[in-house]
Design goal:
Helix content is 21%, strand content 31%. By secondary structure, it is an alpha+beta fold. The strands form two sheets. Strands 7-8-10-18-16 form a five-stranded mixed barrel.
Length: 340
């Protein structure tokens, strides 16, 4: 017998094609001790007006990153179908079980949703979510925006992320969408990008997409939520879903950086207290001290200075005090050469 094509096990509780404002659930059916025979709800909002593009906005891919969900909820309250030329599909907490637990990974299976694409319709809950997004939601969209921050562990200099796709035209559309979002820093994802991310899923589907990193620390910082809300509205204006607004103009010449090598960043060499000397947004100089590792359990042991291996730009730093060997302490990027 021929193999039967896999069917996604997830269902929406409403029809995305229906006009107007709708609230419902993506039914994540996964039998465990908390919900043995029902479903874990992933809230979804659809705001569908007149003819125009369809835009998917995602927050809560990681469950301890709250600036994105806050900005998306602001838009859900602010925008009405009558004022919209197109459709917004808003998912403020895509990894809802992780958001409920304030956890980077899902408490249902311990998996990282942004390392789970293209997913598996017959896999665990995280794999099923990824498969639904890539095979059901993305193909109906004209643009996708995925909002992140550093969560409990890290703090990122506010930036938008674009994938340098094999399709040059798609890369340019990604860049244009990032410039419309308006932040002065763009992180270009190239050879060191993870192909299991939402960004890579969008490339496979062929839909323009950006992500954003908006600070971090595990809470919801007002300034970062403001930046996210303004960026989303600018993108909707640029895409033609809403009329132009009185928002501040986007940065005219954003800085483009990329991770040239994972070996350029600073990592913990042992277990101890990281006494950080730098912050995101600063320049790094090869040989300069990024901080010191203090061995609290061995107070007679000399503290170890940790130096930047190369010149670069500090894209993110850890928010943790006690760190373990191999943990990222400072993420170092380089400027994208002109013409790339």
């Amino acid at each position: 017998m021929p193999d039967r094509p896999a069917q996604n096990r997830l269902k929406l509780t409403f029809d995305l094609d229906r006009p107007g404002r709708q609230y419902g659930d993506l039914m994540l059916r996964w039998s465990d001790n908390t919900i043995p025979l029902g479903y874990h709800p992933v809230p979804v909002i659809s705001i569908k007006g007149g003819d125009g593009p369809t835009v998917l906005m995602i927050g809560g891919t990681h469950g301890d990153e709250f600036e994105g969900p806050a900005a998306i909820m602001r838009l859900a309250r602010k925008l009405s179908p009558d004022a919209l030329s197109g459709q917004l599909i808003l998912i403020p907490a895509l990894n809802a079980p992780a958001v409920t637990a304030s956890s980077r990974v899902s408490p249902l299976d311990g998996a990282n949703l942004n390392r789970a694409f293209p997913g598996d319709p017959d896999g665990g809950p995280t794999a099923m979510l990824a498969h639904f997004v890539e095979t059901v939601l993305m193909p109906r969209c004209d643009a996708i925006i995925d909002l992140h921050s550093g969560g409990k562990a890290s703090f990122f200099e506010p930036c938008t992320l674009v994938t340098r796709t094999a399709d040059g035209d798609l890369y340019q559309r990604n860049l244009e969408l990032a410039k419309a979002f308006g932040l002065p820093l763009i992180w270009v994802l190239g050879a060191n990008n993870d192909n299991r991310s939402i960004n890579s899923a969008s490339e496979r589907v062929g839909v323009p997409m950006i992500a954003a990193e908006l600070g971090g620390g595990g809470g919801s910082q007002p300034h970062m939520v403001d930046l996210a809300e303004q960026g989303l509205l600018r993108c909707l204006g640029w895409l033609g879903l809403i009329e132009g607004s009185s928002l501040p103009s986007p940065s005219p010449s954003p800085r483009l950086v990329e991770i040239a090598s994972p070996l350029h960043s600073v990592y913990a060499t042992g277990e101890g207290l990281f006494d950080r000397a730098v912050s995101s947004g600063q320049l790094a100089t090869a040989g300069e001290t990024a901080g010191w590792l203090h061995y609290l359990a061995e107070p007679d042991r000399a503290s170890q200075p940790l130096a930047f291996p190369v010149d670069g730009f500090v894209l993110a730093h850890t928010c943790r005090g006690l760190v373990h060997r191999g943990e990222l302490l400072a993420l170092i990027a380089q400027d994208v050469p002109e013409g790339r």
